[in-house]
């Protein structure tokens, strides 16, 4: 997608706790407009999954963000029950982020009956 002129990126969090807010913000370019946070767990009854909640908190509580405009953040779950996570699913997430009102709290690659 980047070869086709789209400006997309990925931040892979390798050490989650303790969450390093400064390192996370430093990894984002000042031009970031939207962020999709993918968690590989489900927190029933919570306002969002753990990584999503930490990122939303960092953006809400940090007075000196390096962005011209505060990015839109959506969160979702993937790979639950060891379901396959394909490149087409990743494209679907980027497509959702491009919408004027992207869906928050989504699940990828899992169907319910």
Quick take:
With 113 residues, the chain is an alpha/beta fold. It is built from three helices and three strands; from the N terminus they run αβαβαβ.
Detailed description of the structure:
The protein has a single domain, classed as Rossmann fold (3-Layer(aba) Sandwich). The protein is globular. With 113 residues, the protein is α/β, with parallel strands linked by helices. A three-stranded parallel β-sheet has the order 1-2-3, with helices on both faces. It contains three helices and three strands; from the N terminus they run αβαβαβ.
CATH topology label: Rossmann fold
Order of helices and strands: HEHEHE
Structural class: alpha/beta
The strand count comes to 3
Q: How far do the termini sit from each other?
A: 33 Å
- Give me the CATH architecture, please: 3-Layer(aba) Sandwich
Low-confidence stretches: none
- How is the main sheet built? 3 strands, parallel
The top-level CATH class is Alpha Beta
Largest sheet: spatial strand order: 1-2-3
Whole-number count of domains: 1
Look at the structure and give the mean pLDDT.
87
């Amino acid at each position: 997608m980047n070869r086709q002129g789209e400006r997309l990126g990925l931040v892979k969090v390798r050490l989650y706790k303790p969450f390093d807010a400064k390192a996370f913000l430093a990894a984002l370019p000042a031009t970031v407009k939207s962020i999709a946070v993918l968690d590989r767990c489900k927190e029933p009854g919570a306002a969002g999954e753990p990584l999503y909640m930490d990122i939303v908190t960092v953006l809400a509580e940090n007075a000196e963000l390096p962005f011209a405009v505060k990015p839109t953040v959506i969160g979702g779950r993937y790979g639950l029950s060891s379901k396959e996570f394909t490149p087409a699913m990743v494209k679907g997430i980027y497509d959702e982020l491009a919408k004027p009102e992207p869906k928050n709290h989504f699940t990828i690659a899992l169907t319910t009956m």
